[in-house]
């Protein structure tokens, strides 16, 4: 599927097609590598609701940054966007469960600030809402329960007005 250099549409189309071809080849190689790496690189307690790699770039970035900055013994990243009035496939609403030795001796607000600082770029960009459950290993051992997130109250996807707004976006 490599484009031909002497195509009738000229060299600019050829270059665009060539870059697209190179990008797709690199992306497929990168996805393969990303799928192979997590078990070897990430701590055994890491968990994600999506496949690693480029299919979920925001979720993958959150998982990577929290892992690098906090070295958690347990990490869960849940994309809860589907529970909100956003287009299908969005990455705007997340819940993270972070269990980390660094949290020992910190107040809850200090823990949240640490997580927020690690995810500064995501919070300034794509992420609209972030729910944080930040526990010490001792707290996690005593209570590993994660409460279910409540339904969205800010414009439900089941609301007729919101449904029409979302259908107009597509």
TrEMBL record:
InterPro entries: BolA, BolA-like_sf, BolA/IbaG_stress_morph_reg
Source organism, top-level taxon: Eukaryota
Biased composition annotated in UniProt, kind: Polar residues: 158-170
One Pfam entry name: BolA
Region named Disordered: 151-170
GO cellular component: iron-sulfur cluster assembly complex; mitochondrion
Functional description taken from the UniProt entry: Acts as a mitochondrial iron-sulfur (Fe-S) cluster assembly factor that facilitates (Fe-S) cluster insertion into a subset of mitochondrial proteins. Probably acts together with the monothiol glutaredoxin GLRX5. May protect cells against oxidative stress.
Subunit structure: Interacts with GLRX5.
Assigned protein family: Belongs to the BolA/IbaG family.
Name by which UniProt lists this protein: BolA-like protein 1
Organism: Microcaecilia unicolor
């Amino acid at each position: 599927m490599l484009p031909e250099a002497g195509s009738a549409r000229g060299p600019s189309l050829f270059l665009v097609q060539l870059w697209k071809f190179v990008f797709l080849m690199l992306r497929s190689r990168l996805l393969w590598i990303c799928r192979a790496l997590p078990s070897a690189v990430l701590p055994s307690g890491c968990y994600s609701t999506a496949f690693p790699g480029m299919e979920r770039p925001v979720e993958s970035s959150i998982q990577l940054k929290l892992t690098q900055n906090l070295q958690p013994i347990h990490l869960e990243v849940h994309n809860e966007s589907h529970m909100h009035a956003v287009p299908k496939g969005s990455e705007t609403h997340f819940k993270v469960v972070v269990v980390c030795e660094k949290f020992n001796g910190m107040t809850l607000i200090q823990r949240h600030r640490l997580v927020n600082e690690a995810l500064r770029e995501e919070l300034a960009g794509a992420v609209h809402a972030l729910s944080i459950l930040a526990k010490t290993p001792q707290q996690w051992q005593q209570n590993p329960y994660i409460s279910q997130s409540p339904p969205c109250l800010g414009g439900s996807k089941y609301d007729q007005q919101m449904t029409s707004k979302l259908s107009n976006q597509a």
